[in-house]
Structures are given as C-alpha cells and as structure tokens.
Automatic annotation (TrEMBL):
Keyword hit for Transferase: yes
Keyword Transport: no
Database matches in InterPro entries: ATPase_NBD, FGGY_C, FGGY_Carb_Kinase, FGGY_N, Rhamnulokinase
An annotated Gene Ontology molecular function: rhamnulokinase activity
Protein name per the record: Rhamnulokinase
Top-level taxon of the source organism: Bacteria
Length: 486
C-alpha cells in the first residue's frame, strides 16, 4: 500500500510517501519546504507566529504530487494550537512556542497550583511554552473560541471536517491526565481554561475520516482515508526506533530539539523525576516516553543563521568537517540553559556562557560549532544516565534518529560521551512511524511496535558508532557545575 506521511518539523515540513508490504518499507520524499517562525509587529511589540496557511498549502501541493494513495497521516511538533470559533473558522494565526508571551506565566501559575500537583496529574516537564501556559497567556481570545486544535489535528480538520484531539499530542499540553488517560478537566477548571475547548480524544490508529469531497476533487484523488497516527512527531519517531525486542535501549530523537529518554510501560512520577524535569508523554500503543527535552540542533542552526545575517555564510557540512579537527571538549556550555531558547545571537550567548564558567570562549566558526556539538553530546550523556537512574534501567545501546543522524561528528561524540554504541538512523524516523501506524490500521500485518521496529531494522540504512573511550566527559561536566564561576 502507498501512504502519505505529512511530517511537520520546526525546521522543515515534508510530504513523504511510504510503500509498505510484507518485508517492504520504502520511503520517497515528494516535497520538502522550509518551516520556521514569522515575526509580526503590532502596537504592543511583536509576536512570533507559524505560517499555518503556508504549511497547509505546501501539504496540499505535496499531496497533489503523490499520485495514487491508500491513506494520509499527519504529525508535527508538539504544544502549539489553533483556535476555532463556533463556525469552525480559524481565530487568528497560531503562535510559535518560542514567542515571549509565556514569559513568567509558569512562575505565576505555580504560586496558585503547586508544581508537584501539576506533575502528579500530567507527568509533564516544566517548559515555559507548554500549551497550558500558552492558553493562559491567550486568555482574552479564549472567550470567542469554541475549540482548540493541536497543529496536526487542525490540518486533519481542514482535510476531513472532523474535530478531535489525538492522544500523543494531547499529552504534551499539560492539560492531560497521564494516569486516567483523559483530559485533566479539574485542572482546566481550576486554572480557568474553558473545558469546551478540549475536543474528544482519539487514539493513534483511529480513522479520522476521509478527504472532503471537494478537496479530493481539487487534489485529483479519491476520498482517501485520513488516519490518526502518533501525531506528535516525537511519538511517531519513537515508533520507528529500530530497537531489538527486549533490548535495553535509550533513544535520542535529534532534530531541532533532541528528545532523550526511555520507553516505559507506566509513567515515572517520583520526586526525583520531577526535580530532574523529566516528562512522561503518551506514546503509541499505551507506551510512555520518559524523556527530557535537550535544546538540540536549534542552537547550531541559529548560530549559522546569525553568521548569515552578518553576511558571513558558513556551510554546515564544511564547518562540521573543520570542527572534527578542533581540540575536543575545549569549551562546553549547558546547552539546556534558558538563554538558548529564544531566537537570537547564539555565538554571543555561547561566549557569555563560557566566560561565566571560567572557560576561554571559542573564537573561530569551527571552534564555536565544536563547542555546540560537544555540549550537545555532553547533555545527551547526562540525560541518558539520569533517565536510566530515575527509571531503574540499564542502557546498553543508544538509538539516534532524525536529522541529527546526518551529523557524523555528533553521532561519534554521542557514543564517546554515553560510553555505549550508538545505532544511528533512520533519518526520517517520524515519517516512518507515521507510515507504519497508518499501515497497521489499513490492514498490514504489523501487530505491535516490535513488528514495526523489526521492519525498520530490516529495511532502513543504519550505522553503528562504537565509543572510543578517549575523552574526559566527566571532567567537562564538572566545569558546568552550579555555582562554578570563572
Ligand atoms: P525537524 O524535524 O525538527 O525539522 P530534522 O529531524 O529534519 O528536524 O533535523 C534537522 C537538523 O538535521 C538540522 O538542524 C541539521 O542540524 C541536521 N542536518 C540535516 N542535514 C544535515 C547534514 N547533511 N549534515 C549535518 N547535519 C544535518
Ligand atoms: C520536536 C517536538 C518536541 C516538543 C517540541 C515543541 O519536534 O515535538 O517533542 O517538545 O517539538
């Protein structure tokens, strides 16, 4: 069967066609388009938006180009949403999670609702842009809204006319009860979020509907089924982690963000997990993604963008080759520091962070990039270890998936830092996970995650990186110890 995966990352969106049969899983990229923040000025300053109509248009252009299809699935980055009015019309343009409208909202909410209670109900990490905090900062618009739809659910609504909230993405809102597996109605009421905004939940694997007749005609295709997949891109990416059954594995979904953690059967809601700011997101087939958001390749992309804006273009592949020759671990930063979250001058922020910890800041482009990649690998090491310790598990192998697998320096340093082999690939894990869940719904013999992962292992190019055990990662970590000032 031929299935279209619409996979919307924070850096790029893609429409990928997957062909699935017994022992067969092939993907072909039909369309890729840039995605990112659009800043719009207004009387009170400015707001970072997504170009959601552009994303929809590109999705349709991709679908038009695919030819015969048996199904469509949509996944995207988490936490962001569109609001619909009582007629189903979009109210305003969705806001980007990196917008500053949520500054201080978390801090003021936890004075009313204890952070422990929030974690106990939702199992979610505290990130300033969780949907809950965005909705609170959006309060004025909520009165005119009837429904909140997460980005993939919004696109699915435009394709099918059906309203619903797919569970894996709903679980990233901080309004979802991780144990009851239902909207956290009591919490919504307590914080003043109108409960009518929260649509009925749907499971990954459910059929959402079929393409609206007019749209199908416009696209020149039949009324193809649209299937709910793990609509959170990280949920879909973890479906396609090519782990062996029974293996003790950690995963790193490495793209704009790096999502680093373990797959568990039940949420881990201990005080220690909360203190380490781990999250328990809902995965496909009732699994839990116990992970932490590491700031990710965003810092590298934004570094290159800063240089570009100054008229100094640096090619990613060339600078990574040069960075591989730079002295390892000469300077490292805490890549998860809040300073690296908003768009802006990353090289300056990196220099400041090095100075604050008494390290000589990187000077050349290659040194700066090496500092970012070393710091990412160091954060991977810290997070894999913490995850294993918090969940009482052993990690024998790290699976690295997503665009970051194209960065060979990062893959090797991850193996070195974590001290276990890294199996890198597939690159398009989220699209593959999307295709696999659709395939099962539409009749493929893929009964469980183990079968899906076995098919990925058999069919996708993967590369192993062995740890070299040469560099001193513990000493580098010590340089970042709290309170250490140069
Ligand atoms: P997202 O899904 O968040 O948009 P991706 O999984 O597509 O992100 O990963 C994008 C990242 O992959 C880029 O930021 C870049 O750092 C990395 N990447 C992509 N291609 C290459 C390449 N040829 N060499 C090194 N890194 C690459
Ligand atoms: C990765 C991702 C991640 C979320 C972030 C907002 O694309 O979905 O899992 O935390 O975007």
């Amino acid at each position: 069967m031929r299935l279209a995966a619409v996979d919307l990352g924070a850096s790029s969106g893609r429409v990928i066609v997957g062909s699935v049969g017994p022992g067969q899983l092939e993907i072909e990229e039909v369309r890729r388009f840039a995605n990112g923040a659009v800043r719009i000025g207004h009387r009170n300053g400015s707001t970072l938006h997504w170009d959601v109509l552009g994303i929809y248009r590109e999705t349709l252009t991709g679908l038009r180009a695919v030819g015969d299809l048996d199904g469509i699935g949509i996944d995207s980055w988490a936490v962001d949403y569109g609001l619909l009015d009582a007629h189903g019309a979009l109210l305003g343009n969705p806001v980007h999670y990196r917008d500053s409208r949520t500054d201080g909202v978390l801090e003021s909410l936890i004075r009313r609702v204890p952070a422990r209670k929030l974690f106990d109900i939702t199992g979610l990490q505290q990130l300033p842009f969780n949907t809950l905090y965005q909705l609170i900062s959006d309060r004025e618009r909520l009165d005119s809204a009837e429904t909140m739809l997460m980005i993939p659910d919004l696109l699915a609504y435009w394709l099918t006319g059906r309203i619903g909230a797919e569970r894996t993405n709903a679980s990233t809102t901080q309004l979802y009860d991780v144990r009851a597996q239902a909207w956290a109605i009591g919490l919504a009421e307590q914080v003043g979020i109108p409960v009518r905004l929260l649509p009925p939940l749907r499971d990954p694997g459910e059929r959402i509907g079929t393409l609206l007749p007019d749209l199908a005609a416009e696209l020149g295709m039949p009324e193809v089924p649209v299937v709910a997949v793990g609509s959170h891109d990280t949920a879909s990416a973890v479906v396609a982690v090519p782990a062996e059954s029974g293996a003790n594995f950690a995963y790193i979904s490495s793209g704009t963000w790096s999502l680093v953690g373990l797959e568990l059967d039940a949420p881990e809601l201990s005080d220690a997990a909360m203190a380490a700011n781990f999250t328990n997101e809902t995965g496909v087939d009732g699994t839990i993604r116990f992970l932490r958001n590491v700031m990710g390749l965003w810092v590298l992309t934004e570094t290159l963008r800063t240089w570009d804006a100054r008229g100094h273009h640096v090619d990613l592949a060339e600078v990574l080759t040069a960075a591989a020759e730079v002295q390892p671990l000469r300077a490292v930063v805490d890549i998860d520091a809040p300073a690296f979250l908003p768009p802006g001058d990353m090289p300056a922020r990196i220099r400041a962070a090095c100075e604050q910890t008494g390290q000589r800041p990187p000077e050349s482009a290659a040194e700066t990039v090496r500092c970012v990649v070393d710091s990412l690998a160091l954060a991977y090491r810290r997070t894999v270890r913490q995850a294993a310790e918090l969940a009482g598990k052993t990690v024998d192998i790290v699976h690295l998936v997503g665009g970051g697998t194209r960065n060979q320096l990062l893959c090797q340093l991850t193996a070195d830092a974590c001290g276990v082999p890294v199996l890198a690939g597939p690159v398009e894990a989220a699209a593959l996970g999307n295709v696999l869940v659709q395939a099962r719904t539409l009749g493929a013999d893929l009964p469980d995650l183990a079968a899906m992962r076995a098919l990925v292992r058999q069919t996708q190019p993967l590369r192993t990186y062995q740890p070299s055990g040469t560099d001193d990662w513990a000493a580098a970590e010590a340089r970042l110890a709290p309170g250490r000032v140069g």
